[in-house]
Amino acid sequence: GAYFSTTPNYSAKHYSYCPSNPNTTAGQDPIAPRQFLLARVACGNVCDMKNSINQSLTRPPPLHPGSYYLYDSVQGGPFTSRSSEMCMVVVYDKAQAIPDYLVTFQFRPSFEEA
User: How many beta carbons lie within 10 A of that of residue 81, not counting itself?
Assistant: First the structure.
């Protein structure tokens, strides 16, 4: 499935792309320009997994036990990172997400890092 965060700072800190050095992760070069896609996601009928993590899902679970009908997406969270609370949404059909904007940004050093 494709994973999406409900807050952009989580994606920016952990999953952003560094165009000047594609092999760099966000933590290795915190001041390099970064990019991520802001997407529109059609979640449909969402299965709320709360705080449980099930990495074995390869498709959404059934709407009801024994049903052939499946949820459209799965949501987990809220999970708390150092800066905020966020939820993760997973969609299993690539037609459910459309890239909307390419966001290019650069982190500013925080007071603790300066």
Answer: 13
